[in-house]
Structures are given as C-alpha cells and as structure tokens.
Amino acid sequence: MEIILSIAIGVMTACGVWLILRPRTYQVIIGLSLLSYAVNLFIFGVGGVKTNVPPILSDDVAISTLTDPVPQALVLTAIVIGFATTALFLVVLLASRGLTGTDHVDGRDDRK
Amino acid sequence: MQTRSRVLPAWLAGAVALLSLLIVAACYPAVSAGEIIRFEGQWLPQLGLNFTLRLDGFAWMFAMLITGIGFLVVVYARYYMSEDDPVPRFFSFLLAFMGAMLGIVISGNVILLSVFWELTSIFSFLLISYWHNSPAARDGARMALTITGIGGFCLLIGLLLLGNIVGSYDLDKILQSGDIIRGHSLYLPALVFVLLGALTKSAQFPFHFWLPNAMAAPTPVSAYLHSATMVKAGVFLLVRLWPALSGTYEWFWLVGFAGIVTLLLGAYFAMFQQDLKGLLAYSTISHLGLITTLLSLGSPLATVAAIFHMANHATFKASLFMAAGIIDHETGTRDMRRLSGLFRFLPYTATLAMVASAAMAGVPLLNGFLSKEMFFAEAVETHADSILDRILPYVATLAGAFSVTYSLRFIHTVFFGPPPVDLPTEKPHEPPRWMRFPIEFLVVACLIVGIMPAISVGPFLHTAVVSVLGQDTPEYSLSVWHGVNLPLIMSAIALVGGAVLYFLLKDYLSSCEDGPPFLRNIKGQRIFERVLVEVSWRWARLLEQRLGTRSLQPQLRWVVAVGFLAGLLPLYLSGFEPRAFAFSGIDPTFAAIWLIGICLAVGTAYLAKYHRLAALVMLGGVGLIVCITFVWLSAPDLAITQLLVEIVTTVLILLGLRWLPKRTEDSDEKITLQARFRRFRDLALAIGCGIGMTFIAYAVMTMPVPDAIANYFLENAYTKGGGRNVVNVILVDFRGFDTLGEIAVLGVVALTVFALLRRFRPAADSMDVPEQQQIQDRFDEESPNRSSGDTVRDYLLVPSVIMQWFFPIVITFAVYIFMRGHDLPGGGFSAGLTLSIAFLLQYLAGGTRWAEDRIRILPLRWMGAGLLTAVATGVGAWFLGYPFLTSHSRYLEVPLIGKVPAATALLFDLGVFLLVVGSTVLILVALAHQSIRVNRQRTLDAEKAKEA
C-alpha cells in the first residue's frame, strides 16, 4: 500500500513541479492543484496507512486500532483552503490576462 | 459637528492624561518611602522576558513629567489645532506616545523597555508626519525614524549583551551587577551599543541633526516629544543604567565627548537660527548635551545635577515651545527676521516667554540657574584627569554665554523693536485664556523652583536621586545663594559675556541666512540624505540588477531547487538509506486505480498547454482517485470533502476557461534550442523532486507512528467533545480556534476574489460561439414565433429540469450531512459545500438570470452570519467563565426524533457551514456574473457603434 501511495505522491509532485515551472498561467494553476493533491496525500500518509478503521468511535472497536485523526483534520481544512486559493489565483490570472493581453506568467511574452 | 469633533477628542485625551497623572501622584507616598512598586506578568518566561513594571523615585519623577506635561500639552493643543486638522488622529497618537513613554520609564525588564523605546520612535514618526501633505514633515519624520530606529536597534543589541553578561533581563538584577558588567570582556561592545541608542534618541552629536528637522511637527508635538519627554528618553536611559555602566574611562570619554561637543555646538548653532522653533531645537540639543556631559563625569553629585536639570529643562523648554507656537499661530510666521515688536500685541505671552527664556539662560531666581550652577561647580572639579576634563570649565562658560545670547535674541527680536511689517496675518492678538494656561503653569513652576528649591522640588528630587544612587547619594544643598564662589563667577561671566555677544552680533543676526557662518554649508542632514540615497537606492538597485529578476519562472525554479536541496541535505547528513521497498501485500485493485491515476496526472501535465479542457477533465480524474484513496484508507470525511471540492473547482475553472487565449500547437513559433534546454532542465528538476518525494513519503509511511497526540483525541473525543466523529470533534472543538482562523481565511479570500472581480476587465473571448449554437440561433431568428436563444435553452431542457428538481433534495442532503457531522462523516465544511453546489446547480440549470430571478442569495450575509456565529459561540464560553471556544455537550430529548446530541460545538459548526456556503457561492457567482457583464458591455458597445 505504502509503496503505491508514495509513488503516486512522487508522480503527482513531479507533474506539479513541471507545470508550475511552465510559462502559461493555466499550466501553473493546474500544476498547483496537482501539487496540492500530492501534499495533502503526503500529510495524510504521515498518520499511517490503515484500511477500514476510520476515526469514528463505536462501542465494538478498540480505540487503539483506529487511524490517526489529526492529519485528517489538517487535510480537511487544507482541501477547502486549497479551493479558495485556486479561486483567487484563477481570478488573478484572468485579470492579468485582461490587463496585459497575454497569459504568460510575467504578463508579457518571452523577452525578445 | 466640526467643533464638537475637535473638542471631544481633546476632552477624552485630557481626561486620560489627568487620570494617569493622578494615579502616578497617588503612588508618591510609597515611592518616597523608598519602596519600588512592582508588577510582574509572565510573557515569555522561557526567554527571560516578562512584562515587568517597576516604579521607583526616578521613574516616578519622569512619569509625573510625562503625564503632567502631557496633560498641559493636550490643553494647549485643543486650541492650537485648526479646524481642518483631523484632530482625533492627533490625540490618539499623542496618547499612544504618552503610553509608550510611560512604558519606557516604568519598564522593569530591559527587553520590554526596548519595545517601548521602539514604540516612541514610531509614534514620534507618526506625529512629526502628522501634516503629511508637507514634504518637510515627511522628510523630517523619515529622518527621525531612521536615526532613532537604527539607534533603537543598537540599543536592543546592547541590552541583549547586558542581559547576557548578567544572566537576566530584569532591570533590578542588571543594576545590582555593575561590577560584573564593568569587568566583563563584553563591557565595551555593550556600552557602545547602549550609547548608540541613547545618544541617537537624545539627539547628541553626531546624531543631532534629526531634531531640528523634526520641528516640522505641530508645535504641541515639538513641545512634548522633542523637548520635554522623548528626547529625554536617551538621557533617562543613561541615568537609569548609570549604576551599571558608568565610572569607567570608556564611559567618560564616549559620553563626555558627545556631551561636550553637543553642548557647545548646539548652543553655537542656536544663536544663528532664524526659525523660532529651530532656535529652540538647537537649544534643546545643547541642554541635552549639558545633561550628557554631567552624566559622563561619573560623580554622584553630577548625576544629581543631571536629574535636576532634566526636570528644569522640561518645564522651561515646553513653555517656550508653546509660546513659540502662539507666536506662530498669531502672526503666521516663525522667521525672526520678520518678527518684531510683538510685546504690544501679546503682552502676557511675552512676559511668560521672557521668564521662561531667562530660566533657559540661567538667570538667578529661576530653576535653570540652579542646575546650571551645579553644572558649573561640577565642571570645575577634576574627575578623570584628561584634556577633556581640563577644558570643561571653559567650554561650560562659553556654552553658558551662548545660551544667554540666544535667549536674549529670542526675546529681544520677537517682542521688542518697531512693530512688525507685512505679517501673513492681520493684527495679532492674545490667544484664548486656556491656551495660555499651560505656559503660565510651567512658568510659575520655574519661578517657585527657582526661588524656593529646597521646599518645592527638594523632596521629589531627593526621592529620585536616592532611587538611582542608593548608598552613594551625596550631600547636596538646593539653595539659591551659596556665597561668592567660582561657579557664581562663571555664571556672571556667562551672563555678561552673552549679553555683550548679542549686542555685537545683533545687526548681523537680523539679516543673516539661516544657520551659523562657515558651518551653515555642512549639514548633517545633507550627508544623511546622501547616505540614504546611496544605500537605499543605488546599492539596492545594483543588487537588484545583479541578483533580481522580475520574471516568475526563475524565481519558482529557485524556490523548487532550494526546496529540493533543503529536503535532500538533512537526509544526506543523517545517513538516510531507503529501506528496501516492500512490494508484498499490495492490493491489486488499489494498484490498478493508481495506475490510472498516474496516467491521468501525467496526461494532465502533458496536455495543460494546448488542451485545457482535456487537462481539466484529467485533473478531475486525479481528484476522484485521490478521493477513492481517502475512502480506501479510512478517511471518509476527507473523501466527502474532496469530492465536493472537486465539483466546485471544476466548475470554477470551467467558468474561467473562456477568457484564456486560444493556443494551438501550430500557433507557437519554432522551439529554440534554448527553450529545449530549459524544458529539459525543468523536467530533470521535476523528476528529481518526484523521486525525492517518493522516498520521503515511503520512509515516513513505513516508520512506526509514534504515540503522539492521536490517542488523546481518540480517547477524549466522546467524553469531552461529545462526538464520535473524531475528525469533526477536532475541527470544531479541540482545535476550534484553528478552524476559526481557517474560515476567516476562507472569507478573506472570497472577499478578495469578489473585490478583484468588481473592476474586472475580461479579455476577449477566446472562441466564437460554437457552430452548433450559431446554427440554432439562426434557426430561432428565422422562425417567427421563436426568439433568439430559445433552442439553446430547450436543448438542455431535460437535464435542467432534473437539476431544478434536485434543488430540495440536495438541500436536504446538506442538512443531513451537517446534522450527522458530529458522530458520522460529514460536518460543516462538507455540508456547506453541498449547499453551495445546490445553488450552483440552479445556476447551471437555468442560467444566471433565471436563477437570480427566482432565488436571491446574499453570500456576503451568509459569510457575515457564519463568522459571527462562530465567534459568538466562542465568546459565549466567556460568559460562563470558561476560556474562549470551550464547548459543552449534552443530549436533548426531542419529541418524535428521540435523543439528540447537542453540543455547542454544533453551533460553531453551523458558523463554519454558513461561511463555507457564503464564500463558495460568492466566488462562483462573482465569476459567473462576468459573463453577463461581458454581454452587457458588448450590447452597449454595439449601440455606441450604431450611433456613431
């Protein structure tokens, strides 16, 4: 399990990093989304990877077997905030495109 | 309203100052008995930083000066400030300054003292630049802040060094460790840094030049900050640390040199000023130099004189500044070449100013005489035999003569002589009764102290002196007449010499340029500005040209590269070895899912440039697989949230797609070799990061999870939080404060998006209307009974009806998710997202106009209500005597439904819910509205074109 998850995190990181280094704003926003998936999964994974033991208390499951709820709480808010920052970035990139006429991250096309 | 708004702040400020004065005064019995009143509050005890306040005799004397003169200045400013000035700002800064200054004098911890020290610099800056329309005020303020700010920084270093030597930042401990400090190898650096702080603040040579420029401040500020209090902070500190630092040769030379040069130069410069306030400013510098010189001598008697002169100077100089302010106010100018013969118009003010300047000149029977006499007596004594010590009596007499000259000049030029011609204002007249009151009060104080020193000021001075010198308190006598002795002869020489000098220079002074001859052209100010330009402009530019870039890609590349190395380095240093990968126990389904996920992620990266929609679809696919992973790995809450966020994010980006420029593979020019290299480098970096993350993630996940805080939450979620869904309980209860911060961030971001879109100028659409839609519109136009757009609407009729019908169902679902959140997966975040999707569906089904005709969502109110609910829940705990956000849970019996868990955390979650709905809807709707705006704009443009 762990190996698959870590490869997945690695691949998403690589794709995200590649994209945020590209010159077009849309690539950067997509790259940031991919990176945030990777980071969220990573933080989530810190708590250990267990199946079928959600941190929901019930009388017939021992507490010690449950998965760590703390990274989950962290990631939950991170997902929502991630949406907000994506929205903010999207609006900024649209405004920049409207003002400068280009979708290059620097607001002007490559230095000639 | 205008007058009211001018008077009310003054009353308030005056009341605060008076109340503080009374409180300080009430402390006198305890202080005079030798007690040190202490208050100690813990701040960062681990770092030895406590909020310690201590009030001893010396601090008491200063606190009385600060609050007393502060009160008088408020009274004066009430009449001084004009109707057009924003008075509340003025008084609030003044009060803030008063608080900071009081903080300096009563701090019992040196770090705390340094904090208050910085605060006085900042408020001085704000007060000098109060009339910020004037460039002189701005420049003066900036210079004062730069000089005193750098000084304050040096002071902090010096105090840290002192604390390091002593092992405590507590002032009492430092004062008791004088011998340790003086014997320590770090004594000299500590001394130099502390002195840099003190001397810059007290405008001592060579840092004196900021003070005359600070005179661009309103006169009450000059009277208060730049003569009576703030500039005294430097000498205050020298006295405060006198027991700990003084008495060495280094102290004598450093302090003495600065003091003597300042004393003489300040007095010399003051003679040649044409601006009234300039004269007073240089005189202040000179008097501060006198105090510094006294302190340098290291003798207890000199310290008594220094403390006495601080109080005396504050009284006569504040009153002189106020008088100068009245003259400025009444005549419209402060230029002494234009002022003359004002006695006939302002007899009262003139008399008061005369007494005050006589005190400044050191005329007998006034307070200035007494302390100056003590100074002369000390100057004659030999302290540390050196050239500095030997010239001191002559320098003192000369500076005394200069001060007589400028005092005489001030009075003679302004009040005597022929009546003034062409003043900016009509006939000047006496100011209002209460504007004069502060001056009267201070001048009377000068007289009383000057005539009956032992009775009036004696006990207070003694209390102050004892608190500083302790056992070393010398015998001194406060009386006007000590018999004919050397100091008296020096005083006589200074008085006569000064008067003669004035009558010799009178004609030259009445017409000369501003500033002393020869030295007029060497201005500290100009040097300062040149240095400032050099450092903050030329050097900064050079560095920016060499090292900076304005383009994002290299910056990000550096961030990523440094991040990569920062991750690699500790792994390398700690000898990290990737443990053998265990391929056993892999669930084939999970592997297959992620095989798809990896393909999608790579596809996204590959397609994002030319095929945005495809990339977005694939990104959504990755999101879904992340969501499945959460389900798989026991995180149902995350899965729900991820799924919902995926929906809103996709809709959001879809809304934005139309304004991105068209980009096809053949529209780009040929790829250069350089670009190819860049891509290769980025790819290598990306792959490196990916591999690194894989290793780190694997290492972290296979490490046994330490028994950290997880168990605490698991064990107490039900007993203390009253919920079975631990993640939710953490969010709304244990870590509720974090969540409050997070929803606040969410709200701020939503508002920012909203604000950005208000002035949004969307780019031209990147595509024409699709061909299919064009055909449909053409069909509509040709058919007589159809209007344009009907077919498009009909085209999605079935889905849109379904979506409309879904509205109540989704709402019910949101409520369900919300209600069960405390015990089962769900909660405010996911419920909020669900509800916003319900709204979103209506927009999708019928279009923006259709939706808004039927439901009016006011997202801003939702957000406000949400934030308020969350905060109110937290505050509610206060009323029951618990800390902020303490929650309470119990079960309620609800008819028909049965036992229902009810925790106040649920109320908090309601706030989260409302805010999430508001923010999400606000963001999406604001973006959706742009499409309408574009159409509207296009119609308007078309109409305009038709008219033209």
SSE arrangement:
The complex is a heterodimer of chains A (112) and B (948).
Chain A: H1 2-20, H2 25-46, H3 69-100
Helix pairs in contact in A: 1-2, 2-3
Chain B: H1 2-26, H2 28-32, E1 37-44, E2 49-55, H3 57-80, H4 87-106, H5 110-128, H6 135-166, H7 171-176, H8 178-183, H9 187-201, H10 210-213, H11 219-228, H12 230-240, H13 242-245, H14 249-271, H15 276-296, H16 300-331, H17 347-361, H18 367-380, H19 387-415, H20 433-451, H21 453-456, H22 458-469, H23 486-509, H24 524-547, H25 552-573, H26 588-607, H27 612-632, H28 636-657, H29 673-702, H30 710-721, H31 726-734, H32 736-758, H33 771-782, H34 790-795, H35 797-820, H36 828-854, H37 859-879, E3 889-894, E4 898-903, H38 904-947
Antiparallel strand pairs in B: 1-2, 3-4
Describe the protein.
The complex is a heterodimer of chains A (112) and B (948). Chain A has a single domain (2-50, 68-100), classed as Helix Hairpins (Orthogonal Bundle). Chain A is built from 3 helices and no strands. The longest helix of chain A has 32 residues, at 69-100. Chain A is mainly α and 112 residues long. In chain B, the strands form 2 sheets. A two-stranded antiparallel ribbon of chain B has the order 1-2. In chain B, strand 1 (37-44) and strand 2 (49-55) form a beta hairpin. Chain B is elongated. Chains A and B meet through helix 1, helix 2 and helix 3 of A and helix 25, helix 26, helix 27, helix 28 and helix 29 of B.
